[in-house]
Amino acid sequence: MCYLYTPTMTFITLPLLNGTNQRNFLTVVYSSVYSKPANMSFVDTLRQWDEAVTCVNRQDFSKALEIFLGIQEPNSKIYFDIGCLHLLDQDFDAAEKAFDCSIRKDEHLAIAFFQRGITFYKKKRYEESLADFQKTFKTLRGNQLIDYKALGLRYILYACDVLHNMALVEAELGNWEKAQEHLTKALNYKTEARFNIIDKALQSILKQKLFKLVEFQSKEMFKPNKHYVAELEKKDYLGKAKVVASVVPQDEFSGFAPLQPQVQDGPTRPKEPEVLRVLEGEPHTVLFEFIPETSDELAVVPGNIVFVLQKVHCVVFMGLVPYNYLERLEISLASNKNKGITPPPSRQPPTRPERIQGWLFCSFISSHHFQEKQSTDNSCIVKVHFNFNFVVSVPCGSPYTMLIEKISRKLNLPSSAITLSLTSEASEQSVISANTEMEELWSRASGGRVTLWCNTKEEEIHLVALHSYESSNPEDLNFQQGDKIKLLSKINQDWLEGQCNGNTGIFPASFVEEVPANGQ
């Protein structure tokens, strides 16, 4: 593997052939082709470069040269292409300047030295031509060839061709012995394709006759990367929106809205919402926010639309709402105009009315059957302060067991883990238990309402190890058969988390069993 260095450190791997025809690779480090010019964008440079190469392919060399010269701050490859076009036009001075610029941009571009050596030869500046051919051969680093296809140029630079031209320049200078040495050396680098050229040159040297120069095909150009060129074309990834189905005749809307199936000979107006057809009752809009205090009441916010039901059915979200919190709303089912949501009013909400007078049973739009609940006159609303507040309804004078059962079902906790108190601070006097006289609690009820405070205590669950468990995982808990383990949490059906002998970790649930409460 051979490496050539340039300041920009861009690597390209090129195929090579050594003297034994064994295939190697030459990694050429070259200056960045697509460096952004100071006054010209990368895209513009790329577009003009591609356009100029297209003109060369059409044999329109003058137009191609005009486009190339219009590129500001060309890179080494573009300068090389400009030099080749000048060489085709027999403008050797302009070609020399272009190849000079190409070499300044990339001092290790061997093909540029080779082309400048040809230019000097045609200008009969043989010493300078020989120097460039020698630099070209030195850049090859003892390899048979460099294939420039990976860099965008369809050309293979052969070491034997470089030595062939060096021998020709030496012959022009009258150094026939050196010329013969170069050709003899070329025999070690020649490939089957170049066999005849070297042999014919050797025969000419023996007769001290000049032979033909090996020239670069100047119509071949460095081309920009085809992947970058493909990105020059604008692509519409989303495409143009088009209505494919709509219930509205002559609909041209193309936004992000759900489409409805198109019905042949459909209606002349949008269909009425099916959900509105099953409602019985008068629609109202909510003027003020209402926060429920009982399970029978309905939470609403300004702007909600509720339906005052005359016959309650087909509802899920339902409850009592003060009638003076509502405003009658006119809804035309056949209308196809979207009136939007009525903005909330700016006036203050009225004071809370009595529960018995002026309450209506209302519902949101829903789809489940509901049977109206009737409240009894002797029921009492118990408001419970917990991590969150909630209410339960029990008959006045209910025993402790009925009250604690309702609260435990609400919290989904065993009644033994719940402590009820008449005050926020649970003390001996305020705690309610099965031994408490419930008359004191119900005497505190005012207007059918009473307030309690609730605390919970978690019961510790202890396990005993049925088998020893040892694991190398740091998150696992190791224990021996018969060890007592305190359960901390249940990870899933198969794994538990616990604490044993001061260590905490996870372990298989099948290795332990729960210790009965009376077994501790």
UniProtKB/TrEMBL annotation:
<feature type="domain" description="SH3">
    <location>
        <begin position="458"/>
        <end position="517"/>
    </location>
</feature>
<dbReference type="GO" id="GO:0042554">
    <property type="term" value="P:superoxide anion generation"/>
</dbReference>
<comment type="similarity">
    <text>Belongs to the NCF2/NOXA1 family.</text>
</comment>
<dbReference type="InterPro" id="IPR051864">
    <property type="entry name" value="NCF2_NOXA1"/>
</dbReference>
<dbReference type="GO" id="GO:0016176">
    <property type="term" value="F:superoxide-generating NADPH oxidase activator activity"/>
</dbReference>
<dbReference type="InterPro" id="IPR019734">
    <property type="entry name" value="TPR_rpt"/>
</dbReference>
<dbReference type="InterPro" id="IPR001452">
    <property type="entry name" value="SH3_domain"/>
</dbReference>
<dbReference type="InterPro" id="IPR011990">
    <property type="entry name" value="TPR-like_helical_dom_sf"/>
</dbReference>
<dbReference type="Pfam" id="PF00018">
    <property type="entry name" value="SH3_1"/>
</dbReference>
<dbReference type="InterPro" id="IPR036028">
    <property type="entry name" value="SH3-like_dom_sf"/>
</dbReference>
<keyword id="KW-0677">Repeat</keyword>
<dbReference type="GO" id="GO:0005737">
    <property type="term" value="C:cytoplasm"/>
</dbReference>
<keyword id="KW-0963">Cytoplasm</keyword>
<keyword id="KW-0728">SH3 domain</keyword>
<protein>
    <recommendedName>
        <fullName>SH3 domain-containing protein</fullName>
    </recommendedName>
</protein>
<keyword id="KW-0802">TPR repeat</keyword>
